[in-house]
């Protein structure tokens, strides 16, 4: 890391005056020209408070890093499919590796404010943060460990079982009363498919850039198990009742957008922009669909996929939105590589292989790797009203040796529940994705955000 920093400083000095270099070196601070824009930081970047990846990952290629991160995708998909606040895995002691997805934003809680790098998650509603003391949260030796001190905040409050938010966070299940006084609202929640947390529902001031949200309800985590619980908490950007959007009402009018920087961008951050002000004015959109059984998820209408000029033959049923089964396509910030249901992925892969010079091999999650010199066709996702031709860096991933490239998508885990296609963050890099719940649209525009 020291070597990279030196190289970076050297380049900065070469490219600009000393003053400008100082500014460039501090790309971790929020952009000062627009305080309502929050930095979105890749978890393994210089600006991330989390420890560097395991040495095997740190010295390996982007392809290996993505494979490492994507190893959690199948568990996440399974949990998205079964998405419901009531789904709970048992709390058991677990390991505490940093296996959490992918991008974090800095937010502040309490008065005076305590800062956390929370994972941005568009498929979760309730936000949460580890509270002190927290059993099983990241070990205290780690720089990434940060717990919220309720005692140190003058605006902290707890919520009891009688409030509507309590039944929401408990997935409708009742909250046992233990005495004459109303009981604190406690809940358990599973996360990432293999982890769970136990928390109290509390309120405090949430500060996002220049905005303060008083009385924001979130989970104060007292115990965790499994390796997927974000060590500094999670910001729930889903569309269900306890999400940031739902709790902020007119402040953000149900609108936000983000631009995720490339996994490759060690030094730079993307941005999260909350509310309708300052969003791109002309942006192509596709309808946002609502599934009452999975109220957190952002469904879109994917109607087809093209490889080069060829429209891939797929049974429209494999893509159709069906609120009763949960079938359809979602846009998710927490899955790493885009997953299609098996028959759809097989059709894409077969057409791709027809147009590229083989032979083909597999590397980790990817089954279509080939000599990098071969020409590859672009992939177009056809949404209702919007064709998105993916930039090459969003559909191909390269090995460190520079000799192999892989089609950077995969089939969804093939089990009885596999009805969901997920547009994941590798395919969203350097695009601005606008979620407008009020007007029921998703907008997509090219934007270089790293
Ligand atoms: C917070 O305050 C309560 C009551 O004053 C006390 O019992 C508890 O030990 C304190 N917790 C911490 C972590 O300081
Ligand atoms: C959460 O799970 C733990 C362990 O399974 C259990 O003891 C506790 O009662 C649960 N809490 C709630 C609120 O369901
Ligand atoms: C998806 O788009 C297709 C093509 O425009 C349309 O026929 C279909 O009704 C749409 N599905 C939904 C659920 O809106
Ligand atoms: C998307 O591309 C298809 C095939 O080229 C075309 O028929 C369709 O009109 C395009 N849709 C939009 C919204 O541009």
UniProtKB/TrEMBL annotation:
Taxonomic superkingdom: Eukaryota
Limits of the Peptidase A1 domain: 103-445
Keywords from the UniProt entry: Aspartyl protease, Disulfide bond, Glycoprotein, Hydrolase, Protease, Signal
Keyword Protease: yes
Biological process according to GO: proteolysis
Record GO terms (molecular function): aspartic-type endopeptidase activity
Pfam families, A to Z: TAXi_C, TAXi_N
Keyword Glycoprotein carried by entry: yes
InterPro entries in UniProt: Aspartic_peptidase_A1, PEPTIDASE_A1, Peptidase_aspartic_dom_sf, TAXi_C, TAXi_N
Record-linked PROSITE patterns: PEPTIDASE_A1
Record's signal peptide: 1-20
Coiled coil start-end: none
Catalytic site: 121, 332
Family affiliation: Belongs to the peptidase A1 family.
Protein's recorded name: Peptidase A1 domain-containing protein
